[in-house]
């Protein structure tokens, strides 16, 4: 289990306090208004920011002294995921080696990851020759080939049309079950939490103020959820 306990960061006049858990094979969707601290949380988890206090551990071992490359995370962002001059196979292969000097076994891993994403026949294609959904599938395949147990998704599908976004979210949901990956997905769409999340977390003013079943969105009783959804507090 990933355990984040009172991970605290002071940035200017803002103070962030984060506490959460994430199990292998679990999909946790994190929502919240702009500026609430969602990207700050990812920076702390991935090691791009250093907390002033708190603990962060995976399988009982602290992660705080580890560099980003040593931590058990792979991160997928909304954009800038692919290199247009490299083929699909090469873009996926970067997850294994930045020099793209791959062994036969690693090339097989690339082919298998592409096949799982429905891209087995596009290995020689360049990203501009692919649809937006296919491009994000390539980026996701590169994450999978790294074989890290935890996946951080920073709104990677928000630029896609709703049908494509739902298709890729269902794929993420399937992967959490089949691969046993723990997934933390940042989203601006509460419906995504309803559709695929095992748990929903709401971030407000630098703190996680609610964590529970996504069904809480349907008849929100928690005051913070009501504010987020635009319901009257009373």
Brief summary:
This is Thiamine ABC transporter ATP-binding protein. With 234 residues, the protein is an alpha/beta fold. It folds into two domains: 1-72 and 148-234, Rossmann fold (3-Layer(aba) Sandwich); 82-146.
Protein model, in words:
This is Thiamine ABC transporter ATP-binding protein. This protein has 234 residues and is of the alpha/beta class. The chain has two domains: 1-72 and 148-234, Rossmann fold (3-Layer(aba) Sandwich); 82-146. The protein contains seven helices and ten strands. The protein has helices at residues 38-46, 88-93, 104-116, 132-145, 162-179, 190-196, 223-229; strands at 2-11, 14-22, 27-31, 53-58, 61-62, 73-77, 150-154, 182-186, 199-204, 207-212. The strands form two sheets. A six-stranded mixed sheet has the order 6-7-8-3-9-10, with helices on both faces. The chain has a four-stranded antiparallel sheet with strand order 2-1-4-5, with helices on one face. A hairpin with a 2-residue loop joins strand 9 and strand 10 (207-212). The protein is globular. The mean pLDDT is 89.
